[in-house]
From TrEMBL:
Name assigned to this protein: Enterochelin esterase family protein
Keywords associated with the record: Cytoplasm, Hydrolase
Family (UniProt): Belongs to the Fes family.
InterPro entries: AB_hydrolase_fold, Enterochelin_esterase_N, Esterase-like, Ig-like_fold, Ig_E-set, Mycobacterial_A85_antigen
One Pfam family matching this protein: Esterase
Native source species: Hydrogenispora ethanolica
Cellular location(s): Cytoplasm
Keyword Glycoprotein recorded: no
Example of a GO MF term: enterochelin esterase activity
Record has Transferase as a keyword: no
Amino acid sequence: MKRQAKPGRATRGARLSAEPVRGFLGGGSATEHPLDLPLQAIALIALEAEGLRGILTILDPQARRVRGWTIDDDGSRSFAFVAEEAGTYRVQLAAGAGAGNYRLTLIQTLSLEERVRPVANPRLESSRIQQLRAALTVRPERALASFWREAAAEGTPLREADPRDPRMTLCTFLWRGNAATRNVRVHLLYRTTLPNDYDLALLPGTDVWHTTIRLPSQGRFAYTLLVNAPSLAPPDIDSAPEHKLLYFAVSQADPLNPRRCFDEPGSRYEALSPLVLPDAPPQPWTQERPDVARGALRRVTFKSELLQDERHVSVYTPSGYSAGAKPYGLLFVFDEQWYLSRVPTPTILDNLLADGKIPPLVAILIGNGPGDARSRQLPCHPLFADFMVKELIPWVQRHYNVTAEPGRTIIAGASYGGLAATYVALRYPERFGNVLSQSGSYWWQPPVKPDRSNEFNPYREGNYIAALVIQRPKLALRFYLDAGTGEIDRTGNGRSILAANRHLRDVLLAKGYEVHYREFVGGHDFLSWRGTLADGLIALSAGWAGAGPPPDC
């Protein structure tokens, strides 16, 4: 995604405190508000914007970027970050095209002593750690230096075969601590874990923090390390926004893992670390290839009269696109921003077309509206479905040479996007004949109160979509569903994506639908979805003119 141009030199504003700081920024201007923080403190800041559009950036005492956020709508929001060193930080506001008023408030600071939580002993200890323990009894300084050299050269997590189960790999996560380190935790996007499941322990007399986790050798995972994590239970979907911000303010990429994913800004606090184990399935279409012709990508701002908002929409047209050709197949994908930055959708389409795996198609990537529009509009929202059919499709058909056949139209999304894709297709099967759902949130149930779209009551009937399928006659729809084996419920909140997808699969099959179903060894993250998107497209476009054979699902 394109970034806004950097503004000119920022003016210095008032120091941040519990008393609100107010100001006005003209288009293209910037201002900075200093904030003094002790070592390892977490700061929680609130911003209220009116008309202002731009970027809020946290700069450390050396003027290095810590975190940044885009300001693209009015209203109030909160931000949190951790001070890696003591000193004066700067909260920089840079206006883009939109001038406006703002109000900044320091809501809370948490010192290291106030927020650390106790460390649990690891459940496993790898042979590498056992060997280090033994070496430390002979020549401790040499053993420790050698261990860190080997870890840096090999990259973390350190991996070794599980002697008890050849299908598993022992993964040892490391952190090199200092006097300020109180605890370290792995946040692995694999399973909903209980508190302290993935804590690192300090090897006595050293700076080695470690834990070993047994993981399936077919797995592909994204993870971060939480250093000096707050004494809070890990947040879930029900947690207050401030809880999530404070907890994940210390979340960062693993400095000993040489690979990063989703690392556009360059700060390790805005990136994740990938862990791809030896038997993970390949993702052959996610990398750009110099010999493959590229399609074109056009981004527009789309205003909706029905929804009374606006959003970005990106349109992909394949290489060689012609307005005079046979109408192209049509693909709609929700969460445009993520399916450009975290899932390289244009690259995947280019490669699939070059390899003859799918027929030529036009892809419409649909962004979310401002604020909390995603959580309000994607979960089974009738008006949003109407927007798709009554506003977006007519616009696409006016501007592009695309099919009107539902059988050559795919609607796709992940998580809430998968839920939305299924709901919209059930509501308008005469427009959408194929559903591609990645880890769809089929646990969802209509909330008791309309403004509580995330609310879930485990004592009420879940899987609203499955109930709709049962109630309605069989429609002319085809489905591709996938889910991760780690998307289970271990905390009792009732939101198992894996169980809900299996349930929906069985209901669809019992109803007589064509269903391509796949489970991958991974969690609720784009690192897996960027690979399975191609599987879904190949499966659902099989039988179209120019398509390849379907995969085994």
